[in-house]
UniProtKB/TrEMBL annotation:
<feature type="transmembrane region" description="Helical">
    <location>
        <begin position="253"/>
        <end position="276"/>
    </location>
</feature>
<feature type="disulfide bond">
    <location>
        <begin position="118"/>
        <end position="197"/>
    </location>
</feature>
<keyword id="KW-0675">Receptor</keyword>
<dbReference type="InterPro" id="IPR003912">
    <property type="entry name" value="Protea_act_rcpt"/>
</dbReference>
<dbReference type="InterPro" id="IPR017452">
    <property type="entry name" value="GPCR_Rhodpsn_7TM"/>
</dbReference>
<dbReference type="GO" id="GO:0070527">
    <property type="term" value="P:platelet aggregation"/>
</dbReference>
<feature type="domain" description="G-protein coupled receptors family 1 profile">
    <location>
        <begin position="63"/>
        <end position="309"/>
    </location>
</feature>
<keyword id="KW-0325">Glycoprotein</keyword>
<keyword id="KW-0297">G-protein coupled receptor</keyword>
<dbReference type="GO" id="GO:0015057">
    <property type="term" value="F:thrombin-activated receptor activity"/>
</dbReference>
<keyword id="KW-0356">Hemostasis</keyword>
<dbReference type="GO" id="GO:0007200">
    <property type="term" value="P:phospholipase C-activating G protein-coupled receptor signaling pathway"/>
</dbReference>
<keyword id="KW-1015">Disulfide bond</keyword>
<keyword id="KW-0807">Transducer</keyword>
<dbReference type="GO" id="GO:0002020">
    <property type="term" value="F:protease binding"/>
</dbReference>
<comment type="function">
    <text>Receptor for activated thrombin or trypsin coupled to G proteins that stimulate phosphoinositide hydrolysis. May play a role in platelets activation.</text>
</comment>
<keyword id="KW-0732">Signal</keyword>
C-alpha cells in the first residue's frame, strides 16, 4: 500500500528541514530533495557538528562534574552557591545527552535509538540549554542586587530563597520543553537507511504549532533573559567603574561573562528568528544547516561556565588542589563563593 501526502508548494515548514510525508505499509516516511539530502550528508553535518559536540563533552563533563562536587561538598551554602550548583547540574544534564547526538551525526544523520529516546534527547537538549540561560539570568540579578543594592537585598537574598527560585526555573524549563515530548520527532527517510531525529519534520503538519512554540521559547527563554542580564551587568559595571581601579579585575570578569553569553547564545537564536521571518527559509529550510552549526556552538557555553564562574576563583582552585594534590594537609576552612556570585582573583577583590 502506497500513500503519498504532498502538501502544496506554498505551505511553509516548521522549524526544521521540510519533508513530504509518504506512507508505505502503514509506515510514514519523509521525502526530501536531493540537494537537501546532500546537505545532511555533508562534511559540516556528519563531521564538524559531531566533532564540536565531542569537544564540548570531553571538556564540559569533567569540568562541570568537578565544579558541582566542590560546590556541593566544600562550599559554604550561600545564595550564590545554590545558583552555581544548579547551573553546573543543568550543564551536566545537557552534556549527558550529547553522546546520543554525536553518534547520530557520525552515523550520517541516522537515529538508531528509537522514537522515545529521540523525544527525550531533544527535550533535554533544549530544556537544559534554556534552563542554563534562566539560571545565568538569576546569577546576574543576584550579582546586581549584591553590588548595587546590598543593604536592600540582604533580607531576602538567602539560600532558601535561591533554592525556591531554582525549583521554579526547573519547572519552567520542563513546561517549555513539554511540547517536544508530546510530538513525534523521528521519521525514517524515504529510500534511505536513515532515521532522522528532529532535523526533518513534515511540511504540512503542526506549522502553526511549531511557529508559536519556538517564537515563545525564544522570547521567554532568551530575549527577555538577555535584556535582564544586559541591564544587570551594565549596572554592575557602572557601579564598579564608580569605585575606581580597585575593582579592575572584577570588571574584566563581568565583561567576560557578558561576552560569553552574547557570543554563544545569540547566533542560534538570531538564525531561528531569521528562519521565521523569511518566507523562503520556511519554505525550503535553507538556513537549517547553519542553524545546526550555531546550535552546536551554543553548547560551548556549558564548557565556558565552569571556567568563568568557578575556576577563575583562587579559593576554588586552592580547594581543588588541596583535595587532589595535597591530601596530607587538612583544612577546616570552607570554600566561599563570592557573595555577588562573581569569582574573585583573591579576597581583596571582593565587591561586598
Amino acid at each position: 500500500m502506497f500513500t503519498r501526502q504532498m502538501a502544496p508548494e506554498i505551505t511553509p515548514c516548521p522549524r526544521a528541514i521540510p519533508g513530504e510525508k509518504i506512507t508505505i505499509n502503514n509506515i510514514t516516511y519523509l521525502l526530501i530533495h536531493n540537494a537537501t539530502r546532500s546537505q545532511l550528508n555533508s562534511v559540516v553535518t556528519v563531521r564538524l557538528i559531531p566533532c564540536l559536540y565531542t569537544l564540548v563533552f570531553l571538556v564540559g563533563l569533567p569540568s562541570n562534574g568537578l565544579a558541582l562536587w566542590v560546590l556541593a561538598t566544600r562550599a559554604e551554602k550561600l545564595t550564590s552557591t545554590v545558583f552555581l550548583m544548579n547551573l553546573a547540574a543543568a550543564d551536566l544534564l545537557l552534556i549527558s545527552v550529547l553522546p546520543f547526538k554525536i553518534f547520530y551525526y557520525f552515523l550520517g544523520n541516522n537515529w538508531p535509538f528509537g522514537e522515545g529516546l529521540c523525544r527525550v534527547t531533544t527535550a533535554f537538549f533544549y530544556g537544559n540549554m534554556y534552563c542554563s540561560v534562566l539560571l545565568l539570568t538569576c546569577i546576574s540579578v543576584d550579582r546586581y542586587l549584591a553590588v548595587v543594592h546590598p543593604f536592600f537585598s540582604r533580607s531576602f537574598r538567602t539560600p532558601a530563597f535561591a533554592a525556591c527560585t531554582c525549583t521554579a526555573i526547573w519547572l519552567c524549563a520542563a513546561v517549555l520543553t513539554l511540547p517536544l515530548i508530546l510530538q513525534q520527532q523521528s521519521y525514517p527517510l524515504y529510500r534511505a537507511n536513515n532515521t532522522l531525529c528532529h532535523d526533518v519534520l513534515p511540511r504540512n503538519e503542526d506549522d502553526g504549532y511549531y511557529f508559536y512554540y519556538f517564537i515563545c521559547l525564544i522570547a521567554c527563554a532568551f530575549l527577555a533573559p538577555l535584556v535582564v542580564m544586559l541591564f544587570s551587568y551594565c549596572s554592575v559595571l557602572r557601579a564598579l567603574l564608580d569605585n575606581g581601579k580597585r575593582y579592575a579585575y572584577s570588571m574584566k570578569l563581568t565583561a567576560l561573562v557578558l561576552f560569553t553569553l552574547v557570543a554563544f547564545y545569540t547566533p542560534s537564536n538570531v538564525l531561528l528568528l531569521v528562519h521565521y521571518s523569511s518566507y523562503h527559509s520556511k519554505l525550503h529550510g535553507n538556513l537549517y544547516i547553519s542553524y545546526m552549526v550555531s546550535l552546536a556552538i551554543s553548547t560551548f557555553n556549558s564548557c565556558a561556565d565552569p571556567f568563568v564562574y568557578y575556576y577563575v576563583s583562587e579559593d576554588f582552585r586552592d580547594k581543588v588542589r588541596r583535595r587532589f594534590f595535597n591530601h596530607s594537609k587538612k583544612t577546616t576552612t570552607s570554600l566561599k563563593t563570592s557573595k555577588e556570585t562573581l569569582p574573585q582573583k583573591s579576597s581583596k577583590d571582593l565587591l561586598v
